[in-house]
Amino acid sequence: MYLFIPVGLLLALQVHAQSSSTSRSISTVTLSGTRSLTTSIPFGGGDFVPTGSHVSYLSYNTTITLSSTTYTRGASNSSAASISGANPNSSITSTSSLSTSPTATLLVGTNAASSSNGTSTSTAPEPTNTQACNNYPELCSRSYSNITFVAAHNSPFVNANNVAANQDYGVLDQLNDGIRMLQGQTHYVDDTIYYCHTSCAILNGGSAEAYFTNVSNWLAANPYDVVTILIGNGDFIDVGKFTAPLESSGLSRYAYIPPKIPMARSDWPTLASLILHNSRAIIFMDYQANQKSVPYILDEFSQMWETPFSPTNESFPCTVDRPPGISKADAENRLYMANHNLNTEINLLGVSILVPTTVKLNTTNAVSGFGSLGLAANNCVGMSFPLSSLFQSKVPIPITNISAPKTDSWNYPPNFLLVDYYNRGSYPGSVFEVAAQHNNVTYNRKCCGSAVRSAAGRAVVMQASIIGLLSLLVTAITIF
């Protein structure tokens, strides 16, 4: 059975989803075929979990130690942060740092810079660090695994009036506004890797190399920032095919190569250490990663788990969805990502598809209330509002954000909060406020503003929706 749905119909489905307020649990549709890329198809911004014999999750019974001298991540980069006169590629052994000149930038922390002999050169109290790492000085000494980052779901898919879009602003705006994880789905077409949503015929976000180049250039201009890239390998191609665009773009020069496989939560370095070593791009891949072959493309699911994929449940349970079958103890030893991009399930002639529930973004991306990002993040921790946020929050703490401990809660907040249209919410920047509360920092940055669709844009969508409905009446769906 094959499914053919015209793009016009997808636009009509988006309008239907925006007018629907009923949340239903998803029922997976299985279509026949030889690849799960075509048997579990993500439509219009929603994604079904990949299935099939070629979908596998790596598991390690023992830890593999990697040699840092066996792989070169790319050409040397002259844009590394110059901090306390330290060499960013040198070994860092001291637990403190000391500025060697009045104008040098100081980073302090467990893995911060030290003098050339690895010992502090003074017994005087260390000065307070004023250099921000990922926009906050407090995060410099914090382990990468002890920080909550806001992640852009399908970051490259920015196309006004396209039902398959997931963001209003491009990657440079995303990074400038504070997004620190970039997730997107790639496809391999004519020997080139593109960022395409389901199919390049639906939404083509451009080549992966062009996207990686933008990220690389941004890192060069922002030497005190660490960015995570999560590559969705939509066609399950060999990981080696990704090295060319990563190296040609210059992004591989910033790639972090971990010392072992897999990395436990306690193994991750501090942001200061990553910055000093100029290893400021943490690159994960969901399927087909092979760190023995390409050590700077990290296997996602042996080191990170995710909450339910493409959620349709507004309560956003904080349970392990992928990889399947891991124990709670194993999960607690990994990073994790909360998928908080709400979808609506539409059933047409017995076929279920998912489309983004954009009408509820002001609630979904809000700081508080049922269905909000704030409440979901708190539920993951199994505790009420972080006490520190009592003094830092820009908004009053509502009773709806108080949650009792739950069986699906964890001892630490999500490392990544994956959202659609990050600029929308209860107010501009509300998704960053949620992350700041769990990082115990004060969010006071200016954000992106609310995207307002023009009247002309609304007319285009409605016109396309009418065409889609007419297509449905004539030949919308053909099933063999």
Brief digest:
The protein contains eleven helices and 14 strands. With 480 residues, it is α/β, with parallel strands linked by helices.
Largest sheet: 10 strands, mixed
Q: Which assembly state applies to the chains in this document?
A: single chain
Net shape: globular
SSE-based structural type: alpha/beta
For the termini, the CA-CA separation is: 5 Å
Proportion of residues in extended strands = 5-15%
What is the average of the pLDDT values? 75
Helix count from the secondary structure assignment:
11
Helix proportion of residues, in percent?
10-25%
The number of strands is 14
Flag low-confidence runs.
1-5, 19-46, 82-104, 109-122, 385-405, 449-480
What order do the SSEs take from the amino end to the carboxyl end, as H and E? Answer: HHEEHEEEHEHEHEEEHEEEHHEHH
Radius of gyration (Å): 23 Å
Can you give keywords for this protein?
about 475 residues, 10-stranded mixed sheet, two-stranded antiparallel sheet, 11 helices, disordered C terminus
Would you give an account of this structure?
The chain has 480 residues and is of the alpha/beta class. The protein is 20% helix and 14% strand. It contains eleven helices and 14 strands. It has helices at residues 7-19, 36-39, 171-177, 208-221, 243-248, 271-276, 328-331, 361-364, 373-381, 430-439, 455-475, and strands at 64-65, 149-152, 181-189, 192-196, 204-207, 227-233, 260-261, 281-285, 297-299, 304-306, 335-339, 343-348, 351-356, 416-419. Strands 2, 3, 4, 5, 6, 8, 9, 10, 11 and 14 form a ten-stranded mixed β-sheet that branches. A hairpin with a 7-residue loop joins β4 and β5 (204-207). α1 packs across α11 (455-475). The longest helix has 21 residues, at 455-475. The chain is globular.
